[in-house]
Model the fold of this input.
Amino acid sequence: MKTLYTFKVKKPSFEEQTTKNEEGVETTIKTKVDKDVEVYIKKPSHREIDEMDLFYSIQISELQAQGVSTNTMILNSYHDSGGLDSKKDVEAMKKLLQDLNIKRNRFLKESAEKIDNPTLLTEIKDISSEIEDYQTRLSSIFERSAESIAERRLIQWCTLNLLFLKENETFKMIFPGSSYKDKLENYYNMLDEEEESHIFEKNIFSKGSVLLSTWLKKQAETEEDFKLLESIIDESEE
Done:
C-alpha cells in the first residue's frame, strides 16, 4: 500500500509487574502507560480520487437542493457592502504568509541538519495562529455554505477511509464498515460510548482529520510539510 504519511498516536495500555514480599507472596501491579503507535495515511488510488470527487459533487448538489447557499451566492449578497476584505487586511495577510514561508523554510533546513530549535517552532505556531484567526473570520461568513459543508464531509470521508494500522506486515483499516455510511454510523456509535472507551481511535480520527484536511487544501504535500504540521499539532496538545 502506498502511503502519504505515517504519524504517531499514543495508545493507552497496561504493563504488569510482579513482586514477592519476604513471605514469598506475589503481588501483581498494573501500570498504565502510553505507547506510540504508527498510523498510516493511504495514498488514494485513482479510483478513490474519482470517488472523492463524486462524493463532493453529490454533497454540493444535495445541499443546494435543500436550499443551502453557495459561496458565490453569499459573495453576491455582500457585493453592495464593498466586499469582505479591506486593503489593510490583505496587506497584513500577505506579510504574515511571507514571514511564515521564511520561518518554515528555515525550520525544514535546520531539521534536516538535526538542529533543535523550539523557539522557531513557537514563532511558526504563533504566525500560523494569526493566519488561522484571519481565515476563521473570513471563513465564518462561508461556514454554512454548500462548499464548506461538503468539504467537511469530504474530510470525514477521507479520515474514515484512508487511515490504517499495520499488523504483521498487513495493513488493517481502522474504522470498520462495508460502506461509508456503515463506517460513519460505527464512528458515531463509538463517540456515544463512555469517554475512556475507544480513546485511541478518537485521537486517531482527530489528528488524522487535521492532516488530511491540510493535504486536501494542498497546504501539505511533502513529508516535510506533514512533519512540520504534526509538530505543531503535538505541541498544541501538550
Remarks:
- The mean pLDDT is 85.
- Helices lie at 46-65, 71-77, 87-112, 118-142, 146-161, 180-191, 199-216, 223-237.
